[in-house]
Amino acid sequence: MKPRYPAILAGLAVMVVFPLATVPSVSAGEAMIVIEQHAFAPQVTTIQVGDQVTWNNFDNGEHFLTSSGTLSRSVATQVENLEFHRLMSPGDNYSHTFKEPGIYGYFCAIHLGMWGTVVVEGP
User: Fold this and answer.
1) What is the tens place of the pLDDT at every residue in 61-101?
2) Is residue 33 within 8 Å of residue 56, measured between CB atoms?
C-alpha cells in the first residue's frame, strides 16, 4: 500500500497558496481595501500624501464607492464635486491617489451602512 502523505501535502499546499494568489500584492506607497460581506476592510486606512489606495470588490453584488473629499470640506451637493464616485461590480477594483493630507470618509451609495475612512498624513 502506498503512503498518502504526498497527496495530502500537495492538497495542503494548494489550500495555503491559492488564497494568497487571489489577493493582489501591495507595494510601498499603496494600500488595499477589500470589499466583502457588505463591509470595507480595513475600515480605517492610514497612508501618506501621494499614496494610492485600491479597493477590490470581492462581494457578490455591486457597490457604489463614493467620497465627497476631506471631512473638513463641506459636503458635496453635486456628483461633479465628489472626490470619487465609482460603481464597482463583483471582481472590479478602483485606485485613487490622495494628493492632500486630511481625513477622507467614503461609503457605498447603495448600502449606506457601509463606510470607511482614509487618513492621509503628510506635510
Assistant:
1) 999 999 977 764 445 454 556 788 899 999 999 999 999 99
2) yes
Burial class (CB in 10 A: 0-12, 13-18, 19+), 115: middle
Q: One-letter amino acid identity for 59?
A: D
Cell numbers standing for residue 8: 495530502
CATH architecture of 26-121: Sandwich (2.60)
For residues 87 and 51, the answer to whether their CB atoms sit within 8 Å is: no
Could you tell me the residue ranges of all domains in the chain? 26-121
Cis peptide before 19, with omega less than 30 degrees from 0? Answer: no
pTM: 0.72
Taking the C-alpha atoms of residue 35 and residue 113, their distance in angstroms, rounded to an integer, is 13
**What digits encode the pLDDT tens for the residues 24-36?**
445 568 999 999 9
**Amino acid identity for residue 107 in this structure:** F
Burial class (CB in 10 A: 0-12, 13-18, 19+), 47: buried
